[in-house]
Amino acid sequence: MTTYVDSYPSFRRFIVDVETMLPIEIETYRLDVEDSNPEFVFDHELKSHFGLSDLSPKSFDELSDRLLVDGELALKFLKTKSQQGSQFY
Asked: What is the model's pTM?
């Protein structure tokens, strides 16, 4: 949750493999506080949102390399980081 004005409160759900306890997906849910009946709704899954094959350190390293050269992806990352809040981009 956040106290920022231009940002949606959100939370992430980490789904892990029960045998290895390694993360297999990260889901983000957000709350639109301007809605007349606010409730948490699904926003995105991390892997599909950023085109990751898995959540391994190698995949995150490759994502960081892509963020350096792809301005549109970098903006998407900033918007996701702040749940569409304008104060971060």
From this structure: 0.78
